[in-house]
Design brief:
Elements (H helix, E strand, L loop, with lengths): L10 H15 L12 H11 L4 H14 L3 H6 L2 H8 L6 H17 L8 H5 L5 H13 L8 H11 L8 H14 L5 H15 L17 H5 L16 E10 L5 E5 L10 E2 L2 E2 L2 H11 L4 E2 L6 E4 L4 E10 L10 E4 L11 H10 L11
Parallel strand pairs: 1-7
Antiparallel strand pairs: 1-4, 2-3, 2-8, 5-7, 6-7
Helix pairs in contact: 1-11, 2-3, 2-8, 8-11, 9-10, 9-11
Length: 363
């Protein structure tokens, strides 16, 4: 306990306040709460990484309708999984979800290893906090969580200095989370900690007046709620540029190619990309001689967490194509296939002809 800041309350008092608030004000009707199987909790927890509850609900319900259990998800093609993920962003989560389902089937006989925190955390895309959330909420067994909401709550309550992503700061927060976590009502306690961070102890505008810990919160006593948690040291986002080829045939279909399984938009379908117009023209000369370039569209910027990508759409009409090649596909915007599309590509395809993929915009 040497890394732990001074506690604001004994564990029992902390739990009593939190659960009393949760019983009256917590969220009790989220779709993954009924039923709380390891599979349903796992899918919801992965979707909720980096994404708000209101956005996740629609995706979760649609995902469950298609993949009601881990066996159906493991048996699916990655394309179909990523199609249902389109719009949620952070597509590595979708790829890892698919990989983890296959590991559960192949290595664990179709049952999630909820008896072991280490085995749960070793599944692709899970990690220590998500594993704890799955175990606690699906079994009621004691497991500790430290997601973004919980970090924010604990950091403000104790005015923990430093960016929570630093190992030393994160160790202190884990110690606090361990200290306050009870042996009973783990399902409610885990949900309550997440709900407190999501609904009251919000990132920009905390609602301190309704918080059950207003009188003991160190950051609130100092009037420094917005200073905690400290932000990650900022670096200027680098910029990159790319040209996306909108190559259409006589039927109006658009040529797509599948991205490599790793890296940017891994496993998704995208438009062919080029560093410059010379490279694009050389590709057309080799693959689609006689194709006609049309005026380029206005460039736009797509922002990732670690860089900005300036995209210039370059439409072209094909006369003939010598070979489509592997991992390429003629996509009909008027009859869209169930494949995973990179968000800006989806937007460009939607601009060609009126149609919808029944998903919301990427957060």
């Amino acid at each position: 306990m040497t890394d732990m800041p001074p506690a604001i309350l004994p564990p029992g008092s902390f739990q009593q306040r939190l659960l009393g608030w949760f019983d009256e004000h917590g969220r009790h009707d989220l779709p993954w709460q009924h039923e709380r199987s390891p599979y349903r909790v796992w899918v919801s927890e992965v979707m909720l990484q980096q994404t708000q509850v209101t956005t996740v609900i629609l995706y979760f319900e649609r995902f469950m309708a298609r993949f009601p259990d881990v066996a159906s998800l493991a048996a699916a093609d990655q394309d179909e999984v990523l199609h249902l993920w389109t719009g949620l962003g952070y597509y590595a989560r979708g790829r890892n979800l698919h990989k983890a389902a296959r590991v559960v089937i192949e290595a664990h006989g179709g049952e999630f290893p909820v008896h072991s925190l280490d085995e749960m955390a070793a599944l692709p895309g899970i990690g220590r906090s998500t594993a704890g959330a799955i175990i606690a909420q699906s079994t009621g067994w004691r497991a500790v969580i430290l997601d973004g909401n919980v970090k924010r709550v604990l950091t403000r309550l104790h005015a923990v200095e430093g960016w929570p992503g630093r190992p030393a700061v994160e160790r202190r927060l884990w110690t606090l989370a361990e200290y306050y976590t009870p042996d009973e009502r783990l399902v409610d306690f885990t949900q309550a900690m997440m709900d407190l961070g999501a609904t009251l102890c919000r990132r920009g505008t905390p609602d301190c007046g309704r918080c059950p810990f207003e009188d003991v919160c160190v950051a609130h006593a100092r009037g420094e709620e917005k200073r905690f948690p400290e932000s990650k040291p900022k670096k200027a986002l680098p910029s990159r540029t790319t040209i996306m080829l909108l190559l259409r045939d006589r039927e109006g279909r658009v040529l797509l190619e599948q991205r490599p399984s790793h890296g940017l938009w891994g496993g998704l379908w995208s438009l062919p990309q080029f560093d410059d117009i010379q490279a694009l023209q050389a590709w057309l000369d080799a693959r689609a001689p006689g194709s006609e370039l049309e005026p380029a569209w206005t460039a736009f910027t797509h922002v990732f967490s670690h860089f900005r990508l300036e995209i210039t759409p370059q439409p072209a009409r094909i006369c003939r194509l010598d070979s489509v090649g592997e991992a390429r596909y003629w996509y009909d915007p008027s009859d869209p296939a169930s494949i995973g599309l990179a968000a800006p590509v989806k937007a460009l395809l939607a601009s060609l002809t009126p149609f919808a993929l029944t998903t919301t915009a990427e957060p």
